[in-house]
C-alpha cells in the first residue's frame, strides 16, 4: 500500500475516538435532562458540573482527533 | 505542514498560518511580531477599552456597558467563590485575567478574516502549563511535602494503593495536556469546519448555495457559543486545579 494512503486510513481510524466522546457527551446531557425534568429546582445548581463532565468526556475524544491531526500534518 | 503549492493557500487549514508582520531577532531567537501577536495585542486593547470605558463613571444605577462588565466580574467572582471558598478570592484577579483573555481571543477569532490565537496548541499549552505550574507551586508552598498526599486518597485498601498512586500521578501530569488540547481542538476543529462548509457554498452552483450558506449562519452561532463555553470551561478547570492545591480535600 502507498504510504500516503496508509496515512489517510490511519488518520481516519484515529477519528473513531470521537465515537466514544459522542456517546459520553450524549450520556451526560441525556442524564442531566432526565434529572432536570424530575427535579427542575435542583437543575441550575448542577449546571457547572454538567459542563465539567461534558468537558472531561470531550477531552478523551479530542485526544483521538489530535492523533489524527498529528498523522496528517505532523 | 510542507508547502504544497498555491492551492494550499485556500485550504481549510490555511487560516491558521502564522505570518510575520515585523521581523525581530533577539539573542538568536526568532521573536518576530506575527499576526498571532497582533491579535493578542488587539485582544488586550479590546479588554482594556471595555473595562476602562465600563468603569469610567461608576454609578449606582449602571449603564449598559457597566452592567456588562459587572456581569462578567460577578460571574467569575461567583465561580471562584464556589470552587475555592471565600479565602480563594485572592486568586480572583489571575483567574479573571485568564478568562477574559481567552474569551476575547476566541471571540476575535470569530470575526471573518480574523486569526484565532487559541487555535494553536503552543498558545493553549502555555496557558495550561502556567496554570499547572502555579497550582503545583501554590500546593507545595501551602502544604509543603504534605501536598504529595493528594496522590494518596484516603480509604483505599493497602493492596490497591500502589496502583491508585500511579493512576493519580498520571492523571495529575496529564492535566496540562488535556487542559490545553481541549481548548485548542475545539477552536481548531470549529474553524476548520466553518471553512469547509464555506468552501461548499463557494463551489456549488447558485441553486445549491442556500443550504450550506444557511448551515454556515447556524454554525457560526454555534461557534460563538463554543467560544464562550470553552473560555468558561478552561476557567472552571483552572479553579478546580487551584482548589486541589489550596484546599486539598478530594
Task: Describe, in plain words, how this protein is organized in 3D.
- The complex is a heterodimer of chains A (74) and B (250).
- Chain A has helices at residues 3-14, 17-38, 47-73.
- Chain A is mainly alpha-helical and 74 residues long.
- Chain A has a domain at 34-74.
- Chain B is mainly alpha-helical.
- Chain B has one domain (72-246).
- Chain B has seven helices and four strands; from the N terminus they run E-E-E-E-H-H-H-H-H-H-H.
- Chain B is globular, with a radius of gyration of 22 Å.
Descriptive tags:
heterodimer; A: 74 residues; mainly alpha; 3 helices; 82% helix; elongated; B: 250 residues; two-stranded antiparallel ribbon; two-stranded antiparallel sheet; 7 helices; 4 strands
**Gap between N and C termini of chain A, in Å?**
20 Å
Number of domains of chain B: 1
Number of strands of chain B: 4
- Main sheet overview of chain B: 2 strands, antiparallel
How many alpha or pi helices of chain A? Answer: 3
**Taking Cα atoms only, what radius of gyration of chain B do you get, to the nearest Å?**
22 Å
Helix content of chain B: 55-70%
The ordered H/E elements of chain B are: EEEEHHHHHHH
Strand % of chain B is under 5%
Give the total of beta strands of chain A.
0
| Structural class by SSE content of chain A | mainly alpha
Q: State the low-pLDDT regions of chain B, or none.
A: 1-7
- Biggest interface pair, residues each? A-B, 13 and 17 residues
Q: Average pLDDT across residues of chain A? A: 86
Outline:
The complex is a heterodimer of chains A (74) and B (250). Chain A contains three helices and no strands.
List the helices and strands and how they pair.
The complex is a heterodimer of chains A (74) and B (250).
Chain A: H1 3-14, H2 17-38, H3 47-73
Helix pairs in contact in A: 1-3, 2-3
Chain B: E1 20-22, E2 25-26, E3 29-30, E4 33-34, H1 35-54, H2 64-84, H3 92-109, H4 121-143, H5 161-173, H6 175-203, H7 210-246
Antiparallel strand pairs in B: 1-4, 2-3
